[in-house]
Amino acid sequence: MAVFLPGGALLPPQQQTLRGEVVFSGIGLHTGRFSRVTVCPAPADHGRVFVKSGVRIPAEADYVGDTTRCSTLTHQGEVIHTVEHLLAALYALGVDNAEIRIEGTEAPALDGSARPFADGLLEVGIEPQGVPPHNLFFSELVWVRDGDRHVIAIPGEGLTVGACVDFGRPYAGPQNFCYSLEGPHRSLEAMQLGGRAWGPCAGLLPQLRQPAAEGGTPLSVFLDELAPARTFCFEDWIAAIRAAGLGSGGSLDNTLVLGERGPSTPLRFPDELARHKTLDLLGDMALVGARLQASVIGIKAGHALHVAAAHQIRKLVHDPQHPGDRPSPAASLSRSAR
Q1: Where is the domain boundary, 92, 112, 133?
Q2: Catalytic residues, which ones?
């Protein structure tokens, strides 16, 4: 049976896998092609690994080959697009070890959110494995930026992710959201992240909030408040996206489109855009390949900066110039990349 800790941390102090196989299928958002993904149980210390045409591709930042509109894994000539929503669900539900077999070149879009993935994983069940988890600690602030876009990661305990967006448009003005796998009491607001973020980045951090999360468990907050937030785009982006060879599978069934007259379908949340960015950030932080112990916030950021931050965190862990930045004894990253 699954091990969750109601009222406390979502992730138990042991590795977990699935109790059985679960299949997801549908059209890919960007390729427009049908794909089938089978998520299978895997032994302890296996990690989350994709398998395509016999090629094994660990779900780690080192294997990200493109971040244009999604996170794309590549290895030995094989390509898998749009892995972030499935990875967010796996990470949030504590599935440390899984073999993810894919037929196609992109994870299916489903409804554009992570909720269908989470529902399928929970339906098959999550199994504790009795082995200490791989925890990734680091000891200094990580800050990557591109103009007014930033990702800031601060060492901590457990993982908290947050996103701030402002597109300067109707329905898409300033929004922010955060989610903690340690529970609402560990939200970025409660931790006063702005006060802890020393130096010039402190002024970049607005007050973050976790709406409707008070009294919820980390699992219920993920399922009800974060996982349902959908992929979005603006109506005047569509031509450029299509011209770039992307968005071929986009439809009103899997994408929230915002135009001058408002959203294409009713918003699931007033701040759905910030929530979806938070979901993307969670999926991209799964690419560190272990349970990240940090508070991470994206400010007007996207997959490129998310993955750059994941790379930087992994580099700190491996860098001999930072001997204090090492995984916990149970968290050798080389073991998790099999």
Answers
A1: 133
A2: 303
